[in-house]
Amino acid sequence: MSKWLLRGLVFAAVVVVLRLIQGALVDAFPTQAGWISPTLGLFLAIPAIVWAYFDGRADAAAQSDPDRRQDLAMVWLVAGLIAGLLGDLVCWFIGLFYPVLYTGNLISELTSFAAFTALLIFLAGVIAVTIGRWSVDRKAPPYVRRREGDEERADTDVFAAVQPGPDEPAKP
Fold it and tell me: What are the TM regions of this chain, as residue ranges (predicted)?
C-alpha cells in the first residue's frame, strides 16, 4: 500500500469519528459549539503532526542529501485530499440517516469541508516533516557530500581542467 493511501484512509476514518463526536457534543451543548469544533480540529491535526514528524526524521536519516529525499509534501497533500473527500463523503452519507451529525449538501461536503480537511492535514504534515528533517539535519556532520558520484561527471565539469591536482601546488 502506498504511503499516501494509508495516511489518507487513516485520516478519513479519524475525520468520520471526529465529526460524529462533534455532532453529539454540539447537540448536547449547543452554546459551546464555538469551542467544540476548533478543539476537535486539533484532534485531527495532532496525529498528522506526529506521523509527519516521524516521516521527516526517517527520510532525513535514510538520505543525507536533501536533493535526493522523498517528496513528502505530495504524500501529505494527496493523503489530505483522500481524507477530506472520502471522510466527508462518508459523513454526508451518515448524515442522511443520523440527523444529529451536521452535514451540508453533497457539493459543499466535497468542496468546502473536504478542502478544509485537506488543507489542515497538508499544512500540519508539511510543517511537521520540515521539523522532523531539521531535527536530524542539525546533528549531521558539518561537511556532507551533497551528491555522490560527482567524480564521474568530471568530463562535463568546465572548471575541472583548471583546478590543481592533488600533487600540484595551488596558484595564487
Answer: 33-54, 75-101, 113-136
